[in-house]
Amino acid sequence: MNSEMAYLVGMILGNGEIQRNHNETTITIEIPHKNLTDDEGLEIDVYVRSSLLDITRVLEPLIGHSIPVTTTKSATKISFTMPNSEYTIREILRFIGNGLHHSSMRMNDELFNITTDEKKELMRGIADVTGYIRRSNRAFKQHEHRVYIEVPGNWGLTIDIANMLKSLDIPIQNINFGHPNFRDPQMKDYRKGKVYSWKKEHQIKVWANEFLPIGFNIVHKQRALERYATELETYDDRTKTHRFYWETTRKRQRKPIHPMENDASLPDTIRGIHFESWTDLAEVLGYGE
How crowded is residue 16: how many other Cβ atoms within 10 Å of its Cβ? Predict the structure, then answer.
């Protein structure tokens, strides 16, 4: 393991897809453009492509050849192919639990024993492809800016990321799970016949200033992170943001029993259980003190 490998593995875990045949493996990583412009009105696709060109130059010695970058209005992609016999490709597959799509990948336990700097690179790789910081991500007050890491449908990886952040002493402010108790807590959608509206990505939310040790390699994201972290710390010091949920008073909101709590797509460990706090759900899945 080295920093380049850790960062690449993070990108794959965040939004990668694997295609294999008998002889070779192709890995494709996509960075979606959530909006056409950032909060300053600048075109996101231009910044993502420029950043990725710099990133691929660092990764190319690891891969052994050039990595093309392709851009559309909705996403920027990088893709590379290597023989199955290559040590690098075998190690990548091992580190991601041999998953073929980011929705089924997991962090190999060995990743929790790599160096602190390598863990930060791993998390930066994840954040670059599926992390977002926008003014609209703020919490209750105008200055309470947060980074969102979005994980579509992968419960295990959500908890892996949470525990990796914990190992770096970075607390999570909230996880908005794709679960009926949190995405449709008062059953408003359910009563309208939208019974699956709760099936959305899991959103891991971290205070902007707490995310600074990880940061982004994508230029417009890093610029926004620095600006919003400074704005947050103008009003709040770290005694307010540097707290894990088990170090605070847990708040629970009474919710009605949701019929979809028994949905077959939910993990066995939480299916049929009613949750009134994201912290209770996170604890059952393995993120806790």
Answer: 25
